[in-house]
Amino acid sequence: MGEKIKKVVLAYSGGLDTSVMLHWLKERYGCEVVCYCADVGQGEELDGLEEKARATGASKLYVEDLRQEFVSDYVWAAVKANAVYEGVYLLGTSLARPVIAKRQIEIARREGADAVAHGATGKGNDQVRFELTYYALEPDIKVVAPWREWAFKGRSDLIAYSERHRIPVTATHAKPYSTDRNLMHVSYEGGILEDPWAEPPGDIFQMTKSPEEARAEAEYVTVGFEGGVPVSVGDERLGAVALLEELNRAGGAHGIGRVDLVENRFVGMKSRGVYETPGVTILQAAHRALESITMDREVLRMRDALSLKFAESVYYGFWFAPETELMRRTIDETQRGVTGEVRLKLYRGNVIVAGRRAPRSLYNERLATFEADTVYNQRDAEGFIKLNALRLRSLAQANK
How far is the C-alpha of 57 from the C-alpha of 24, rounded, in Å? Predict the structure, then answer.
């Protein structure tokens, strides 16, 4: 990049990569660097981060608590959509990136910065997710992606650079894999996980027990929804963050939510990812069960047709694209009647639906019963079947 940059907002964690980036940006561009750290529930220690950023050359540090916005506006949208990428991935990392990038642009505007920077590599999906959000919200913003510019080849190069410039970092050797954590999930990739035949080591998991080590007794939980949005666990009404934390605890204790897949990255390569998403795994099962008694058949089919496209759009980074916004509004409309409760049994990695009820249920026991009834004339089915068979009979006759 040959452009002149006066001030850049760097997405900063205080780890090895972004600490080196902070110093490198000042050295490469001679610009002011404002650091920004987003709290989306990753549980990282934030104490002392401002002193560390300033010691490395930042003019200031923003620490933004985005947990409520992340869960309410992003995670719940995915639950309402029943969004799943390639059959199993619940999109924990994909959903966090746009909320992080959105606040970064807001800070850049507040600071009068002419550029933003991120720590994603040139191989992965995150670079796309960050930058599509940047450009959708601020089309003329300059973007610096150091991993696509600098000469460093890996972690050992960064450690050597930090030692040479006396940058305060604690990293001393490469981790055997990389992790990303937020309120929704933890993801693991790279290193020892790059062999798709090798089983993930049992000690890598942070949120869930293995099913073998999970509680020996089943646990029942009841989840309440209003308009497709989770609002309660048991008899307690909870805010978005507290509700997801409670279900993460319950699911984790029972070994629920582990996924191991080889996924297709947007950039074209296949990548092995291991995930644990206990709370949202429970919510997906509960939400689908409640929809079964509250949504019209054809509306449900139309929403399901959008679910795959919605999941792909989120995975690819198009959260702020017009088609994704349209899908969100449409999905919200389908959820207006999805209000009620679902009782679930949690046991050794399984989420088993044990009951569902709704004040405006479309399930009519008088119609569905196998016992005698007076509301359904079974002889009406004869004409219904013959009309639907008309084209099949015509085809069979023509083939004789």
Answer: 10
